[in-house]
Amino acid sequence: MADELILNLRKLAQSISILYVEDDLNIQKQTVDFLSRFYHKIHIANNGQEGFDIYRQTPFDIVISDINMPIMN
Length: 73
Description:
Elements: H1 2-13, E1 17-21, H2 25-35, E2 41-45, H3 48-57, E3 62-65
Parallel strand pairs: 1-2, 1-3
């Protein structure tokens, strides 16, 4: 049953776009590695300003962001 749920999640997640904003490159890599198992449209920003600029240009279904970052929180 769990395998079926995971397959359904992967199927539903294919069309969802994510903006992930994280300045810690180790955490960023681990999180993106995990998210990419389910989601295919993941955009990455390394700081708040970069994330905000990307967000203004592209609509996203989900935004995941660190709170305290360089340049802009």
